[in-house]
Amino acid sequence: MAAGRACAATGRADLSGGVPLDLVPGARALPFIKAFEEGLRSLGYRVGENVTIEYRFANAEIERLPALAADLVRLGVDIIVTGTNPNIVAAMKATTTIPIVMTIGVDPIGAGFVASLARPGGNVTGLANDTGSEILGKRFELLKETLPNLSRVGFLFNPDGALNRSRQTSSMAESARVLGLTLVPVEARGLDALEQAFETMVRERAQAFVMQGDGVLFNYRGQIAEMALRNRLPAASLQRELAEAGFLLTYGADIRDLYRRSAVFVDKIFKGAKPADLPVEQPTKYELVINLKTAKVLGITVPPTLLTRADEVIE
Fold first, then answer.
1. What is the pLDDT of residues 278-295, one digit of tens each?
2. CA-to-CA distance for 245 and 241, rounded, in angstroms?
3. 65 contacts 90 by C-beta, under 8 angstroms
4. What is the CB neighbour count within 10 angstroms for residue 56?
């Protein structure tokens, strides 16, 4: 989250707030922080000179979000920049007047964050990550292309991590059905639930799984990747960091690019634009990352046609 206040005498910005209110610990959020600050620098802001940023991290503890958001509001911030859906919800409950810039909102219309992408209508605007079932289903397509005999796919998700979960699950189930796949939904709210989740997928004869984007599960990506290898389950998800951790493949928006672009919204709002009038933007850069080291451990031969389409191959 971030906030801004104009100094009339100098025309400079004094931004106070937290950026971003993320579920991942500060150290693991560094790539996103760096991207956001790069975006600010490109617009003439210098942290510590004409912009001040307060960071707040929930460290994968969703229950801390309301207090963190309320703390930023008490600071008198002018703009709040935040990440995933639970963070956006916490910020919206804390204030209906301070502008909120989301960086990776999922289904912002269905979640009730904005009235429409073109005319948000309230105090929330910014960038949307997954905005429809087409992107959700793309990971199933990639797994099916890699594993032609695939018929049963696990869907690992945190039920506390996003709004409209039933609608998203329905969309994913439909995407899977079109590909002739049976979906095996499995919940995990944190590290202590992961062993049971994998036991369920194995018992239900899942041959691979897709992990839905979530700040809590992202925090445990290394453990999830290790469990996937131990249980011989190819894993797919949306962020490149998950492929770097050991998932077989990831396909999704370039999250760092979204954080970088969020600085543009901060700049526009600081200069007088209203969130209600700033259209929500969608990703312009998508990445396919394949981990060949994981493929070799699992005895999977990734089709050459898929490798040539990859933005990055980890060997």
1. 999 999 889 999 999 999
2. 6
3. yes
4. 22
Beta bridge pairs of residue 101: 81, 125
Residue 161 confidence (pLDDT)? 62
Q: Residue 255: how many CB atoms within 10 A of its CB?
A: 25
Q: How far apart are CA 13 and CA 191, in angstroms?
A: 41
pLDDT digits (tens, 9 = 90+) for 293-313: 999 999 999 999 999 999 999
Neighbours of 93 (CB within 10 A): 12
Peptide bond into 20 cis (omega under 30): yes
Nearest one of 223, 220, 221 to 236, comparing CA atoms: 221
- Please give the backbone phi and psi of residue 125, each rounded to the nearest 5 degrees, phi first: -150, -170
β-strand 286-291 against 249-253: which pairing, if any?
antiparallel
pTM, entire model:
0.80
Which of 5-9, 21-25, 45-49, 289-293: highest mean pLDDT? Answer: 289-293
Helix (H, G, I), strand (E, B) or coil at 94: helix
Cα–Cα dist 2/45, whole Å:
13
